[in-house]
Amino acid sequence: MCWTFCGIWHIERLATTKAYVFRTHKRSYKKPSLFTPMLSPYSAQSLKPLFEILPDLRPFVTEQTDWFEIKMVSPSGWDFWVSSAGNEITVGFAEYHTHFGWHEGDPTDDGTDAAEFIRSLRTGHLVLAVWYRGEEYAGSRPVESLQEAQPKTWCQRWWRRKQRLQIKGWIE
Q1: Within a 10 A sphere around the Cβ of 15, how many other Cβ atoms?
Q2: Which of 37, 52, 60, 129 has a CA-to-CA distance to 83 between 20 and 30 Å?
């Protein structure tokens, strides 16, 4: 009995031994693209400006099927990650994450905007303000200074009255 898979493999069942023998055609065998990660056009286009602005991230990239992921730990010990899943760039740092391109923008612009945000975090221009209610996470946002993180209005102060603020930076 002979079975053909994509015209490349022949599998024959040997009746006497009940074993299977795999044979290839004499032509050279090319590995099907199913087995190699292939980035989507969006991911490939958005990754290029990311590497142009931040080339040191290249060793941390893992290519999945259609999308890429970057995972690392910042010098201060907080998790940092970037993903292009869902045809948008998502950048995460500690408890915070933000999206670039969810509005179907240009992939090159999305990659550039994400790289600029990452560079601002890494240079200390932006830090993360994280609020906790006891030990439970209550919210976070990037800020340029500690003063910007403090509640300014009566309503904001009332909302944050039982929460504590922690500032998290790339390097602490």
Answers
A1: 8
A2: 129
